[in-house]
Specification:
Layout (H helix, E strand, L loop, with lengths): L1 H17 L4 H14 L6 H21 L2 H4 L2 H24 L4 H12 L3 H10 L6 H24 L18 H10 L3 H21 L4 H12 L5 H25 L5 H12 L1 H14 L4 H10 L5 H12 L7 H21 L1 H12 L21 E4 L3 H12 L4 E5 L2 H9 L4 E3 L5 H6 L7 E4 L4 H13 L5 E5 L6 H7 L3 E3 L1 H21 L6 H6 L2 H12 L12
Parallel strand pairs: 1-2, 1-4, 2-3, 4-5, 5-6
Helix pairs in contact: 1-2, 2-12, 2-17, 3-10, 3-11, 3-12, 5-6, 5-8, 5-14, 6-16, 7-8, 8-11, 8-15, 8-16, 10-11, 13-17, 14-15, 15-18, 16-17, 24-26
Amino acid sequence: MELIWITSAYAAGLLASRLLLPPLVGYLLAGYALHMAGFRSQTLLAEFADIGILLLLFTVGLKLKLRSLFKREVFGVGTLHLLIVAGVSGLIFLLDHQRLSGGLVLGVSLAFSSTVLAVKVLEDNGEVESFHGRTVMGILIFQDLVAVGLLAVAGGSSPSPWALGLLAFPLLRPLAKWLFEATRSSELRLLLGILLAFSGGELAEAVGISRDLGALLMGVLLAGHPEASDLGRKLWGLKEALLVAFFLQIGLLGTPTAEQLLMAIGLLLALPLQGWLFFTLLILIGLRARTAFVAALAMMTYSEFALIVAIPVIKDGLLEPDWKPVMGVAVAASLGLAALLNRYSHLLYTRLEPWLIRFERRVPHPDQLPADFGNAEWLVVGIGRSGRAAYETLDKKRYKVMGLDSDPDRVGLLRNEGLRVVYGDVGDHSLWEQANLNRLLGIVLAVPDFRARQTALVNIRASGFAGTIGTTSFNVNDDATLYQSGADVVFHPLTEAGERLAECVMEIQSSAANLTGQSVDAEEEGPDAGFADGFDELRSGGVGEHRKQDK
């Protein structure tokens, strides 16, 4: 039986991915196909699905930063969106003489956007750390918390008085941190993550609270740790594999009837209204049209959490059982539609910009792009390790240098350190169209994502900039594309840092071999001088000499 599940899921997922759809759509369709073939859900599949959900919520907890939830573009937009969608859904249920509570719960569930799809879209576009990427992630985490709250009360049973003890969860943070840091092996860290997720689930269930909430709280204990994201990446593949069981289970529970299919189509027709609502709310708080549009498009889906929440809510009698297959079809179709649209999100905005720009408020935008770069002679884009080293090298050589970064928090920190840095999204073609680049001698692109570097090169050259452009590369196979896109210099931080290290080591060996017979003055200078001078470049972030290569 397990072989049939895995084979069906793989085949359907592969077909979906070939059609440029998320594999999740294929998993749901595989479940429907198995149900029509006479197969039914079994206990083992349900257990795998439960584990997948526990790990999903644990990884959500790892990313949770309470400070980010209270920004107006996150808490304000997230709250208003949930209230409006839930209110409209509740009103429709009331007018249809159905349970108001069921309509409100359904509305909140439908207001959730797909975390899985949005994260994948942002990662594929290299926009996770951009302003709109951080806004989307904040709203999604806020929605996840609301979903967990719904799950916590959906069972209908009253929590134990001991549930108040969960408020003491932060006291376990030092212990969780100690265990995490004491565990060096990557295999053991993966096992520790699973152990913490299960422990939180069992502890919460013991006091009458949803296991999912306990898993999330356990993840929060490690949130903010420098290596928490690495643990999240290790768990990501395992969690995704186990969630396949959940989506298969949805299809195995029953295929939709013609009436249910019509209901699902009705939900899909309402999806653009949800995207427009996100766009309107983001515009109202003062964001630019481009930021609001790209963010809204990334969230214009129904969420896998809607399926997770629907099952206990239906069991509790707040919704009719017919809603289960309806939600499954609506979620699958919305993910497929959103995947296609988000592949061309920036192209779509370019086409719609003359119309969308009219909705921008004439107020200072928190995501405002710089009109120019002042009297700067060099622009360094992406102030990470390599970017900062390039900035400081140019600054030491008395050049007027300006930094550009898409992470607003990093921009603030760097400014506090005295660096001249402004906010800007490297992938925003409007940045390069509007900014005055005439005074610049050259630009250094040090952003980590290849697609972002390539897009920036094309946009910068399209704006008419004729100065020198240097960029980093982490794959030799990408060099030809970067040169064709407009780069003059392609630098490999890791490879060329290794070459410089070898040169330093050989200098030391050569100096040591020639020590005999050298003058006292030479001995006082010491062989380490050359090593220190060269190695300073490695310590500064792996940026040595920028060597122009043949195109």
